[in-house]
Amino acid sequence: MLKSGSIRAAVVGATGYAGAELVRLLAGHSDVTITAITSRQYAGVPFNQVYPAVGTAVSLVCETFAPEPICERADIVFTALPHKLPMSIVPELLDRGVRVVDLSADFRFSDVAAYERHYQAHTAKELCKKSVYGLCEVYGEKIKKADLVGNPGCYPTSVLLPLIPLARAGLVDTKMIIVDAKSGVSGAGRSPSLGVHFCEVNESFKAYKVAAHRHAPEMEEILGEAAGTPVCLTFVPHLVPMTRGMLSTIYVNPEQAVSEQDVRQCLADYYKGRPFVRLCGEGAFPETRFVRGTNFCDIGVRLDTHANRLILVSAIDNLVKGAAGQAVQNMNLMFGVDEGRGLDMIPFPV
Ligand SMILES: NC(=O)C1=CN([C@@H]2O[C@H](COP(=O)(O)OP(=O)(O)OC[C@H]3O[C@@H](n4cnc5c(N)ncnc54)[C@H](OP(=O)(O)O)[C@@H]3O)[C@@H](O)[C@H]2O)C=CC1
Ligand SMILES: CC(=O)N[C@@H](CCC(=O)OP(=O)(O)O)C(=O)O
Fold first, then answer.
1. Residue 301 Cβ contacting ligand 1 at under 6 Å
2. Quick check: CB of 107 below 6 Å from ligand 1?
3. Residues 141 and 167 reside in one and the same domain
4. Of which family is this protein a member (predicted)?
5. Are 178 and 272 in a shared domain?
C-alpha cells in the first residue's frame, strides 16, 4: 500500500501543452508529489505564472533540466519534449535508477528502421527493445513491469483502441483500413507557427499530411502485432478549429457473416472492467465534447449493410487519453496503483 503522495514525479518539458496537462493531472493525484518541473524558457518562473489558471494548486518553480538533481528527487520522470530529444536524455535517466514515461515517439517503435524512416537516426536503439508501448488497455501486464514506456501518439490511441480487439478476433480485413481523423489545434503543441496562427485555422477545416503522416507506421506496427500479419492503412488527418479533442472515423471491411452485434460484443468483452473505454449505445456515436478534459475513449459502431462496410467512430481528448492522461494511467500501472487513480473526472454535461 502506497503512502499518500509517495510517488515522486518530475516532468521534463512541463510548460508545453502535454507537459502542462500532466502537471495538472499529477497535482490532483493523491499518490503523487511533483518534485521537479523543467523548462528552458521559464526557468525560475513559478508554473502558475506560466499557466495562471492553475492558481495555488501548482506554485512549483520551473527549473533547467539537469539529470542528476532531477533523478535524486524522483521515482518517475515524464519526458514531454519534442520528438528526437528524449532519446538523448532517457538512457541517463534510466541509468540513474528512475522509471520513465516518454510522451514523444522516440520509444514507441520496436521496429527501429521504421522509426528512422519517419523521424531520424536513433541514438538509443537498444532501449527500443526494452521499451513497452504504453497503450494501457492492451499492454497493461507488460507496462506493470516496465522501466521505460513509450506513450502512444494521440491519433494512434484513437484508432488502435477500436481496431485492436477486432483485429485480434479476426473480425475485420486488416489489409484495407481507411482512417479519417480530426484533431484540435493543441495537438500541434504550444510553439507558435504559421500553421496554427488564429487566422489560418479559425472558421476553416483542412486535411494535412494526406497519406504521409508519421502516425500511420506507428498504427501499422501495433495493429500488425494484434492481427498477426502485416496490415495496410490509409490515414488522413485533419485540423479543426477547436483547442482540444480528436475524432477518428475508421472504415474497414468485416470478414464474412460478421454482424454489428458481433463487433459490439467483441469490443464489450475486450474492454470489460476497463474504465476508460466506453462503448456508445446502439445507434449512438461519440462527440469530442463528451470526453473533453477526461481520459475516456468513446467508441461508436455501425455496420453499413448496403456497402458491407464497418464504421467505427472514436473520440478522445488529445491532451488526456491522447497524451498526459494515458501517461498517468501508465504510471499507475507501473507503481501498482489503481489505473484510474487521479483520472476519475466526470465529463462536462455540456
Ligand atoms: N500536444 C498533443 O496533443 C500531444 C503531444 N504529444 C507529445 O508530447 C511531447 C510534447 O508535445 P507538446 O506539449 O505538444 O509540445 P510543446 O511544443 O507544447 O512543448 C514542448 C516542451 O518541451 C520543451 N522544449 C522544447 N524544445 C526543447 C529543447 N530543445 N530542449 C529542452 N526542452 C525543450 C518546451 O519548453 P522550453 O522551450 O521552455 O524548454 C516545452 O515545455 C511531444 O513529443 C509530442 O509529440 C503526444 C501526444 C499528444
Ligand atoms: C494537430 C497536430 O499537428 N497534431 C500532431 C500530432 C499530435 C501529436 O502530438 O502526436 P505525437 O504524439 O506523435 O507528437 C501532428 O499531426 O503531428
1. no
2. no
3. no
4. Belongs to the NAGSA dehydrogenase family. Type 1 subfamily.
5. yes
Any long-range contacts for 272-277 (C-beta under 8 Å, 24+ apart)?
274/137, 275/339, 275/340, 276/136, 276/137, 276/321, 276/329, 276/340, 276/343, 277/137, 277/161
- How many Å apart are CA 136 and CA 152, to the nearest integer? 9
Nearest CA to ligand 1 atom 2: 187
pTM score, two decimals? 0.97
User: Which pLDDT score is estimated for 3?
Assistant: 73
**From ligand 2's centre to the CA of 265, what distance in Å?**
32
User: Do 76 and 190 have their domain in common?
Assistant: no
The pLDDT value recorded for residue 171 is 98
Nearest CA to ligand 1 atom 17: 189
| 154 in active site | yes
Domain presence at residue 342: no
Ligand 2 nearest-atom number relative to CA 208:
16
Q: What is the CATH number of the domain that holds 277?
A: 3.30.360.10
Together in a domain, 138 and 162: no
| Higher pLDDT pick, 10 / 256 | 10
